[in-house]
Write a structure and sequence with these properties.
This protein is of the alpha/beta class and about 450 residues long. A hairpin with a 2-residue loop joins strand 6 and strand 7. The protein has a five-stranded mixed beta sheet with strand order 3-2-1-4-5. A two-stranded antiparallel sheet has the order 6-7. The longest helix is centred in the middle third of the chain and has 37 residues.
Amino acid sequence: MSKKHVSLEVVNPKAAGIDIGSRSHWVAVGQEAQDVREFGVYTEDHKELSIWLKQHEITTVAMESTGTYWQNIFSFLTAQGFEVILVNGRQTKNIKGKKTDILDCQWIQKLHTLGLLSSSFLPDSTTDIIRTYHRHRQNIIKQIAATTQKMQKYLRLMNLRLDVVVNDIVGLTGKKIITAFVNGEKSGKELAKHRHYNIKKSEEEIAKALQYNGRVDYFFAFKQEWKTYLHLQKQIDETDKEIKKLLKKIIKNDENKKKHKAKKKAYKRKNKNAIRNTDMNQIGVQYFEGVDLMAIEGVNDATIMALISEIGLEGIKKFKTAKEFTAWLRLAPNNKISGGKVLSHHLPKGSNRLKIALRQSANVIGNLKEGHLNDFFRRINYKKGRATAISATARKLAVIIWNMLYKREQYKPPTEYLYLDQKRKLKLVKRIKKNIVKFALKPEDVGFTNTLITNNKI
């Protein structure tokens, strides 16, 4: 019996594959031994690699996304005119057997030649710069959280139970007490005098909680952590200034962005970790060229900043459908079907910063008392629990945002969400109407004339 050969169509005849390493890169332009070479990681090595690829008339290159080692060579080859695609490691897994750098780069080259690799999403250069600043800022916030926990531990060991009498030890009252304590004030009564009037605990109770036990070693360690905390706060301020300056520069250089003006929101809670001294409502409307994403309930400064830094306005255009966008975010169910039967439809594993931001917004929506998205959240929550409701609402948010940015539409919910001031106004009007009916009031009883009523001046 003769053997059957299955042939695959060559899609990229002039393709190369690169196996990225920390100290060297292995590059294949074919499947023969002489078609593979090793190059270093310095700029001179990149130039030599570019010349070698051009000698073999290579036009497109595929490489695996290994850590951050791919970034320099990716940028260099793109600048040299090559079509470079970055591939997720799951797509380049070879069949079981021997694994070497040479075999890996040849396998990547073969897959790319046959058109079996798809490029990962990469933002434009401007968005990439904003992403660097924002991710650096998020790392600092994580360090601040860790430092605050250490300070809380040392305070507890010194018998200063500040965490019991205040909600946040680095809040307004907490900072004043800690500053006085570090500067030498050890008396609980004197420290308690820094209590803010909004604190529920009395000054006497705070004084009881702040009885220093005299441990000098813990005090020294606490002072070190306090200095670290202040230094990190200074870094946050500097980073916020850089982000604000960059965003304003982007908007200033684009006439289409500059002309838009945001409507003031009746009420939006600002998180303490949001970018300081920056009106993200105005910046968001200008950056997204008139699309007001803040009109969506649950969307706040953090959500807007995540969208700007992780994907950008140009990045959203790369997704032709909302389904593609939600699938990239790993918010679309991964249906596994066999024999016409759905085996599972769980969300695929993995996450990114934008998905996390959308899930946080979904959690905020779940805590609201009313609104179109809150109604949706409660229906899912009742049927399948809060965790599923958060994922479903995050996906719904992603679809809404894609439609707004891709199709240039404003947010139009079936039932409008009312902010705090609007709710108060409606309650006041309802109470007035009720009293008018109850006491059978007439316009002249409250000083209104029929002329004013007919002219709609009341």
